[in-house]
Amino acid sequence: MSTPARLPLDGVRVIEFTHMVMGPTCGMILADLGAEVIKIEPPGGDKTRKLPGLGIGFFRSFNRNKKSVVLDINTPEGKEAAIELIGTCDAMLENFRPGLMTKLGLDYDTLSKRYPGLIYVSHKGFLPGPYEKRLALDEVVQMMGGLSYMTGPVGRPLRAGTSVNDIMGGMFGAIGVLAALREREHTGRGQEVQSALFENCVFLSGQHMQQYAMTREAPPPMPSRVSAWSVYDVFTLADGEQLFIGAVSDKQFITLCDVLDRPDLPAEPRFETNALRVAIRPELLEVLGAILKEHRIEELSPKLEAAGIPYAPIVRPEQLLDDPHLKASGGLVPMETDDGSMTEVVLLPLTMGGRRPGVRQALARVGEHTQEVLARLKSRVVA
């Protein structure tokens, strides 16, 4: 669990009032990059720790490298300790429902009067505008922001299979912190940063919006799209195994046919160019499908890789825990959990100077750092 002693955000201190995915993702990114991130939890701990079903992995996935402090901010003593602790931090993160932090007196307008250098990050459903008071979920904004429409077949909008907007919203919050820290070097003042689920989803759909603006033709959902490439699809191989194959140039099509021992196909006039192949794409895919049913993934994959043909098996999340590339590249590492067991976690998808920002400490137990952190305050308040 060791990483080099010096990380980019060493010396930056962040206090986090968050739960679920969006806000915790922002804090985790900053923590992985070296910031001291103090997670404020209510008595009994963040309820995200105990989510069942599809939410069971949220806390472990988005709260590493943080300290845990328990405060009841609904009491005068807890609130005052929180405010004093905020004053020792460079940035504050929150992702609670609209109006809650104002009701508690922990909103930006109130805190910035006392701490003008504070960078205050709100993770919300919507940026200021007609929708801003609505409650939002990742699924809600995927429906509103064009993503579900583009993902599912016609008439069957389908949400993406993971919390894309929550995670990316936290990422944009972290980008905002980095930019605000840089600006504070020049102005001496902090600022409020807002990141929102809806606007994040619209950003993801922006390319399709431009497609319509340029062509005046509504882009079809991805399952109904007209592909620009003749071979760009999932094929069923022997024993029902599936493999995505993409041949996006005439040269790659010829190479693919050589790999499949069918050099005769590119010689057929109807398959001579990509444009001709796209025009009769269903026919071509039927021909290739019949050929590929005679091949097995384990024998075909190395041939495709050697030939430089883009391909991918259809991998389930649980299979990634044993992915050889993730393990060899250092992207999947062990972490001690809050119950003392070990688990494998996915690191940030980047390297800096050839290194992966990693896991520096065990996942914090509820309130594990309360005494340590609050003892630094002038009032010496201890929960």
Task: Please provide a written account of the structure.
- The protein is of the alpha/beta class and 383 residues long.
- The chain folds into two domains: 13-205 and 323-374, Crotonobetainyl-coa:carnitine coa-transferase, domain 1 (Rossmann fold, 3-Layer(aba) Sandwich); 227-317, 2-Layer Sandwich (formyl-coa transferase, domain 3), CATH 3.30.1540.10.
- It is 37% helix and 15% strand.
- The chain has 15 helices and eleven strands.
- It has helices spanning 22-32, 58-62, 76-86, 100-103, 108-114, 138-144, 147-151, 164-187, 197-215, 250-259, 274-279, 281-292, 297-307, 324-328, 370-374, and strands spanning 13-17, 36-41, 66-70, 91-94, 119-124, 192-196, 231-236, 242-247, 311-313, 332-336, 342-346.
- A six-stranded parallel beta sheet has the order 3-2-1-4-5-6, with helices on both faces.
- Helix 1 crosses helix 8.
- The longest helix has 24 residues, at 164-187.
